[in-house]
Design a protein that fits this description.
Length: 197
């Protein structure tokens, strides 16, 4: 009796499993990371805005993060533990699950999220920073949120500005040179134009 294979096999006539092309793999990973970024952004926008609108949540939870009037890198994840769990841990988990990415890809995604959050709070506008070239939501954009924490702008984080544009909370910025102190300053566009009148 000849042995019979049962079940499905992905092997080819040569006996080797078909190889994914490098391009196909890169496209799949890019799509998964894109989906995870969109899900994380939507989740964080909703909760971030809620924490500003609800006085209890702002006073007891989100105000911890807004002790940083002038953000700095180590303050990126200076949050109340509940905020860390709700926005970062649950948002990241939802992005991971919705995208269907593998644990290996998730290493790059979560690293990207962490580095992006640190960059958004670093207070540095260095030439050649790829985050500043790739994202409108960047160091200056989030800096404006910390400046205008009571007026309610620029809630979107960490990647896109989409939800701010959709819900009318988008505040563009200008980068001004403060020659007296030798620094650059991010200024909300509305304040900049009214000051210039
Ligand atoms: Zn905030
Ligand atoms: Zn912040």
């Amino acid at each position: 009796m000849c042995p019979q294979l049962v079940g499905e096999s992905t092997a080819t006539a040569t006996g080797r499993a078909p190889q994914r092309t490098w391009t196909g793999t890169c496209l799949t990973v890019a799509c998964q990371i894109g989906v995870a970024m969109a899900v994380l952004d939507g989740w964080q926008y909703v909760w971030h805005r809620c924490m500003h609108l609800n006085r209890f949540l702002y006073r007891h939870v989100h105000s911890w993060h807004h002790r940083l009037v002038v953000p700095y890198a180590f303050g990126a994840l200076y949050n109340h533990p509940i905020e860390g769990l709700l926005l970062d841990t649950m948002g990241g988990a939802l992005g991971f699950l919705a995208s269907g990415m593998s644990p290996r890809v998730s290493i790059f995604f979560f690293t990207l999220c962490t580095v992006k959050a640190v960059d958004d709070h670093c207070g540095m506008w260095l030439p050649g920073n790829m985050f500043h070239r790739c994202f409108w939501n960047n160091t200056a954009y989030h800096d404006v949120h910390h400046q205008l924490r009571t007026s309610g702008y620029n809630f979107s984080q960490p990647f896109f500005v989409t939800w701010d544009r959709v819900f009318g909370t988008h505040m563009p910025y200008v980068i001004e040179e403060d020659r007296a102190h030798g620094v650059l300053r991010a200024r909300p566009m509305a304040l900049h134009t009214s000051a210039g009148k």
